[in-house]
Write a structure and sequence with these properties.
By secondary structure, the chain is α+β, with helices and mostly antiparallel strands. The protein has ten helices and 13 strands. This is Protein kinase domain-containing protein.
Length: about 375
C-alpha cells in the first residue's frame, strides 16, 4: 500500500510529523508519519529505536499502534496510529477539565508507566505533550508517545538494575525533569514518577510556578515548592504524590497500586480502569489556588553545568527535519534492526516524490 501526505501536524527537536492517508485502501483511515533526518553513517537511528520500544510494549491500551518503518539515505520514517490532542489542549476545552476526569487521566498515566517499567524500560520524557487523546473506540483513554529517549533501567542479560552514575547533561524536558535529573544523575523509574507528578500538578493548577522563569532558574525554584505548596487548595493526594516521587531511591520500586487507589479515593464513582469524560459536569480544576512559594528548609542546591558535547545521543549537523541522531549502543532495546524487520511493514520513499511513500513487506 501507499501512504500519501495530507498535511504537517507538528514539529519536534528531532523531526516533523505529518498526517497521511493510505492510498487505495477501502477505508479512509489516516495515520501519523514521523520524519527525521539520518544518514548512512548513523548505525542506530532514533525512529527505529522508538519503533522497537513500542513493539516491546505492545498490548497495553496506552501504547499507540505502530504500523510501518522506513529509511532512505537521508531520512527515516515511522507510521503510527493518528491520535487526538495532547493533555495540555484537553485541559483547555470549553467545558474545562473536571477533578473526576483528571483523576481518570492520572490513573491511566500511572498505569501506563507501571507497564513500561515492568518491561524494564524508562521513558525519560514524561510530560503533558507526550500524552495524546485516544480516538474512536479509544475515546476516554490517553496514549503515551515519543519513546526516542527510552532506555533500559535493567541489564537486558542479567535483569539486574543498572548502577547510578553521573551524566554530562540532562535527559527530558526541563520543565518536568526530576530534581535528580537536574543533578545529571542517570535515570531510573523515579524520574518518570516525578515527571508524572509535575504533569499532574500542571493539569491540576493550570501551570507550574517555575514555567514563566528562565530555564536556568528551574532547579532552584523546584526546590522551593513542596508538593503541598505546589498543589495547595486541592485534595492532598496530589501534593503527597509530588513529595513521594522526590523521596524515591534510585533502585526503589514505586508503589503504583497504592497511588492508583489514592487517586481514585478522591473521585467517588470511578473504579476499575477509569475513562475520562469531558462532557460530564463536575468540580473544575486548572486554576492555581495558592501562589506563595515557601522558604526553603535548607540550602538550595546549584545545578551542574552541562557538557553540550555529550548526551544520550550523538548530535550531528541539523537539516530542515531535525538532528541526525544515533542512539548509544548501551541504550538499544535488543536487536533493533531485526525487531523492526520482523514486526513492521517497510516504508520505501520513491525517488521522485516528496509526498508519497511506498509501504511494502521487507524482502
Amino acid at each position: 500500500m501507499r501512504l500519501q501526505l495530507v498535511e504537517c501536524i507538528g514539529y519536534g527537536g528531532c523531526g516533523t510529523v505529518y498526517s497521511a492517508k493510505i492510498v487505495g485502501a477501502p477505508d479512509t483511515r489516516i495515520v501519523a508519519v514521523k520524519k527525521a533526518r539520518t544518514e548512512d553513517s548513523v548505525d542506530n537511528p532514533l525512529l527505529r529505536h522508538e519503533a522497537c520500544a513500542m513493539i516491546r510494549l505492545r498490548g497495553h491500551p496506552a501504547i499507540p499502534q505502530v504500523c510501518a518503518y522506513g529509511r532512505s539515505q537521508i531520512y527515516e520514517y515511522l507510521a503510527l496510529e493518528k491520535l487526538g490532542d495532547d493533555l495540555g489542549c484537553l485541559s483547555q476545552t470549553p467545558n474545562g477539565l473536571t477533578l473526576q476526569s483528571l483523576v481518570a487521566v492520572a490513573w491511566q498515566m500511572l498505569d501506563a508507566i507501571e507497564f513500561i517499567h515492568f518491561h524494564g524500560i524508562v521513558h525519560c520524557d514524561i510530560k503533558p505533550g507526550n500524552f495524546l487523546a485516544g480516538v474512536g473506540s479509544d475515546e476516554g483513554r490517553v496514549k503515551l508517545i515519543d519513546f526516542g529517549l527510552a532506555r533500559n533501567y535493567r541489564n537486558p542479560s542479567t535483569h539486574e538494575h543498572i548502577q547510578e552514575e553521573a551524566l554530562q547533561k540532562h535527559l527530558g524536558t526541563y520543565r518536568y525533569i526530576s530534581l535528580n535529573m537536574h543533578l545529571h544523575l542517570s535515570p531510573s523509574r523515579r524520574e518518570d514518577i516525578e515527571s508524572l507528578a509535575y504533569t499532574i500538578a500542571e493539569l491540576l493548577c493550570g501551570d507550574l510556578p517555575w514555567a514563566t522563569h528562565d530555564t536556568d532558574d528551574y532547579f532552584a525554584l523546584k526546590q522551593l515548592w513542596s508538593g503541598s505548596a505546589l498543589c495547595a487548595g486541592y485534595p492532598t493526594v496530589f501534593g503527597d504524590f509530588v513529595d513521594y516521587a522526590r523521596s524515591l531511591a534510585f533502585q526503589e520500586t514505586p508503589d503504583y497500586d497504592l497511588w492508583k487507589r489514592r487517586f481514585l479515593s478522591v473521585a467517588p464513582g470511578l473504579e476499575g480502569q477509569p475513562l475520562y469524560d469531558l462532557s460530564k459536569p463536575g468540580p473544575l480544576v486548572g486554576k492555581r489556588l495558592g501562589d506563595t512559594a515557601p522558604s526553603p528548609n535548607g540550602p538550595v542546591l546549584k545545578q551542574p553545568r552541562s557538557d553540550s558535547s555529550f548526551g544520550v545521543f550523538d548530535w550531528m549537523s541539523m537539516g530542515s527535519c531535525g538532528e541526525r541522531i544515533s542512539v548509544r549502543p548501551e541504550d538499544l532495546i535488543g536487536d533493533e534492526q531485526t525487531t523492526v524487520r520482523q514486526n513492521l511493514e517497510y516504508i520505501e520513499e520513491p525517488f521522485a516524490s516528496k509526498y508519497k511513500w511506498e509501504v511494502m513487506h521487507p524482502r
